[in-house]
Task: structure prediction
Amino acid sequence: MTASPESHTHRAGPTGAPAQLTRIWDLPTRVFHWSLAVAVIAQIATGLGGAMEWHFRIGYAVLSLLLFRCVWGFVGGRWSRFAAFLYSPRSVVDYLRGRARPEQLVGHSPLGALSVFALLGLLAVQVATGLVADDEISTAGPLTRFVSGGIVGAATRWHAVQGLWIVIALISLHLLAVLFYVLVRRQRLVRPMITGDKALVPAAAMPSRDDAASRLLAMAVFAVCAAFASWIASLRL
Result:
């Protein structure tokens, strides 16, 4: 059972300053993160393996998750909102030069934010092109009949070739970056995305809301997103 944002366990910070466990990642964000990771890996495996019925089913799950994250980026916990990690180019440069502000080290860092937006954007493109793709053998997306043949052909090529390998490349870079921060910079990135908490200097961050009401809201939002994805799936011939 995870601790509430109000119950903090005090410990020594990395420089000896007093620190405490602060709820940074709310439960809906954590469930989204790991669910999307599993779904994307399954998408790649089923696509390369030719298990197209499962590829479509998992694709609708990815669509539901992406729609949920878009909404949760505006109404979710403090550090899950897009406004918390929408950085200017100057902020990214300052971060690379070692001049990061304290709040940039709480949730997603400027580089981490770029990775998140790149992955979400690319996955959205992959889902969109998959919905209008057609292999002209046995499988076609549910929206192919609503667009021209030229769009179907271009979307199919992108989805099966360029988009697929760019997704694999971005995932690989993401994993390498996590390993770099864990092994070289000694920053814990995986555990906070499991427990939701980070050990921070008290003045560095306000905790994210992660109570029963916000979790019920997340369930309602996801239910609507899943219902929309199911309706899209029902259009498939």
Q: What stands out?
A: The mean pLDDT is 88.
